[in-house]
């Protein structure tokens, strides 16, 4: 049985077993389950326990909320990301009874829900990518040193990449960003988006080709500009 990552209309329940008032960006570094983690400590076991003990679901939030927040902040901006993190875990909580317990790692499931929610925020994402294209600054980076390094690295390619990503079809953009920003494998992306592995490969290949073409075009413009400046 595959985990359902589709997103229904989200209604706030009477009580959600997450840290009330805790903003995802304040949760500290995410604690990801180790590959050799004991079976009773996997994400799947946490989800299973939460069916009868809803408060147990808070541990899944503690493990993954920051990583989900950073992914969403890059796509729709920090403010919208806060709301979407809460919505992601709310949907996951409501769907926990249908989770495939053979899948020890819940990250693909959570990223799939988050990506589907992003689909309702196309304008926010387009605005975020345009801002990223102009500044080259990762909106999920909060450390000043990291931001400074990103500005330096982005001067040549960052704006072109962000602009190219903004022009991708949504389905190609989801695959590319789950691979590049969420660090999911091809198989995990297929699981997250409920699509065949071959479709992941074809969409990622198409997205990479378009981004590479944008970078090549940007490099060509840079060479022409430099030649004009020194002509």
UniProtKB/TrEMBL annotation:
InterPro entries: RNA_pol_sigma-70-like, RNA_pol_sigma-70_dom, RNA_pol_sigma70_r2, RNA_pol_sigma70_r4_t2, RNA_pol_sigma_r2, RNA_pol_sigma_r3/r4-like, WH-like_DNA-bd_sf. Residues 60-127 form the RNA polymerase sigma-70 region domain. Coiled coil: none annotated. Residues 161-210 form the RNA polymerase sigma factor 70 region 4 type domain. GO terms for biological process: DNA-templated transcription initiation. Residues 1-42 are annotated as: Disordered. Pfam families: Sigma70_r2 (PF04542), Sigma70_r4_2 (PF08281). Keywords: DNA-binding, Sigma factor, Transcription, Transcription regulation. One of its GO terms (molecular function) is sigma factor activity. Belongs to the sigma-70 factor family. ECF subfamily. PANTHER family: RNA POLYMERASE ECF-TYPE SIGMA FACTO, RNA POLYMERASE SIGMA FACTOR HI_1459-RELATED. This is RNA polymerase, sigma-24 subunit, ECF subfamily. It comes from Pseudofrankia inefficax (strain DSM 45817 / CECT 9037 / DDB 130130 / EuI1c) (Frankia inefficax).
């Amino acid at each position: 049985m595959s985990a359902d990552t589709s997103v229904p209309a989200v209604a706030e329940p009477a009580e959600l077993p997450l840290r009330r008032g805790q903003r995802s960006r304040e949760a500290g570094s995410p604690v990801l389950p180790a590959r050799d983690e004991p079976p009773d400590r996997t994400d799947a076991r946490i989800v299973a326990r939460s069916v009868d003990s809803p408060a147990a679901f808070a541990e899944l939030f503690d493990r993954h909320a920051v990583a989900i927040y950073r992914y969403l902040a890059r796509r729709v901006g920090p403010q919208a990301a806060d709301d979407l993190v809460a919505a992601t875990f709310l949907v996951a909580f409501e769907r926990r009874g249908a989770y495939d317990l053979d899948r020890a790692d819940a990250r693909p499931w959570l990223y799939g829900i988050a990506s589907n929610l992003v689909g309702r925020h196309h304008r926010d994402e387009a605005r975020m990518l345009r801002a990223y294209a102009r500044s080259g600054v990762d909106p999920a980076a909060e450390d000043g040193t990291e931001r400074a390094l990103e500005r330096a690295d982005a001067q040549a390619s960052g704006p072109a990449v962000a602009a190219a990503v903004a022009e991708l079809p949504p389905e190609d953009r989801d695959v590319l960003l789950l691979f590049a920003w969420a660090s999911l494998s091809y198989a995990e992306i297929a699981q997250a988006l409920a699509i065949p592995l071959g479709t992941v490969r074809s969409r990622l290949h198409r997205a990479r080709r378009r981004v590479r073409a944008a970078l090549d075009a940007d490099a060509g413009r840079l060479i022409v500009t430099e030649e004009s400046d020194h002509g």
